[in-house]
Please model this.
Amino acid sequence: MPLSSEILFQPFSVGSLTLPNRIVMAPMTRSFAPQGVPGPANAAYYRRRAEGGVGLIISEGTVVDRPASRNDPDVPSFHGETALAGCQGVIDSVHDAGGKMGPQLWHTGAVKGFQTEWTPDVPVESPSGFDAPEVQRGVAMSDADIADTIAAFAKAASEAKRLGFDTVELHGAHGYLIDQFFWAGTNHRTDAYGGPGIGERARFAAEIIAAVRAAVGPGFPIVIRLSQWKQQDYSARLARTPEEMAQWLEPLVAAGADVLHCSQRRFWEPEFPEVDGDEGLNFAGWAKKLTGAATISVGSVGLSGEFMSSFTGEKSTSVGLDALVKRMDRGEFDLVAVGRALISDPQWVEKIRSGEGELRGYEVTALGELV
Ligand SMILES: Cc1cc2nc3c(=O)[nH]c(=O)nc-3n(C[C@H](O)[C@H](O)[C@H](O)COP(=O)(O)O)c2cc1C
Model:
């Protein structure tokens, strides 16, 4: 193994989960589960990443049991007998290859599908009926809708545990439902789920986490994915200072989240350079420092360009991991998620470990099939 990447191959434990290395496959929607049911091709796709040495696989977003939880008919469901049987096939296949995996549990809120004009046959739902600031879409959720959604996340998490998954990740990032509650631009509620402070707007997520914890019991690791940026506005910030970040994250950890998956488009960007300089801690670094929870960083690891630009055709070439390793060596965060590099190449982790084999770049055409 090249000396420089040793830290990536140290084991890591959280709760009942022990990982052989620090590399996580980032959740990536592939829209290859017709009618929401994953099949043998999906299972084989994830199995190849387990065989290629990925420490922890987080699945593509899989939707919870609400009438408008999806924005694409071909993303997997994490409810219903047929879809869950498909999910069972996925986790069995990954375990068979020695891998560890958790589903990413998702509700798309008021956000339109990325690759399709499809819409659910009931109105989309969000905290206040907004997809983005000033952009109305669908309906505001009632108290009963909120309670049912919280229960749907908890039910999906208990199904994940029952099927044998090793963890669950809640998708609280990128402007989807949970993030629409965090974001003042889309949460105008005046009840207990809204308010001027990020701590108040974190209540919905905290209640989901508490319900998930009650459903899965102690020890089973709960991950929540978070981002300052939104697909609706790359410059959006939920926390403008470390104090605000603590108000946002502390209730989530207190409610039972073990791991904060801190999504950035470029992992090397410092979160609060005005506090600790241009080489300062990134989002995952600050999240760990403020809460003491384990954190995952992500964003353009091993690639030259970032992922949102990749959808409009920007090609990325393979780049070295020195900047990443430097941050991990200083203990800034615990795990790192890798997205597109693992779409291009199921053997990416093994190539990094051995230092052998040519690393591939990434371009959007790679999404055409499940390699
Ligand atoms: C095709 C594609 C689909 C994605 N789908 C999801 C998703 O379902 N859930 C999620 O949290 N992030 C999703 N992302 C974001 C990735 O998890 C990751 O954060 C992003 O690609 C940055 O990592 P990378 O630069 O290593 O690709 C997706 C990214 C891509 C490229």
Remarks:
- The pocket of flavin mononucleotide is lined by residues 26-29, 60-61, 104, 171, 173-174, 225, 263, 298-301, 303, 306-307, 338-341, 367 (CB under 6 Å).
- The radius of gyration is 19 Å.
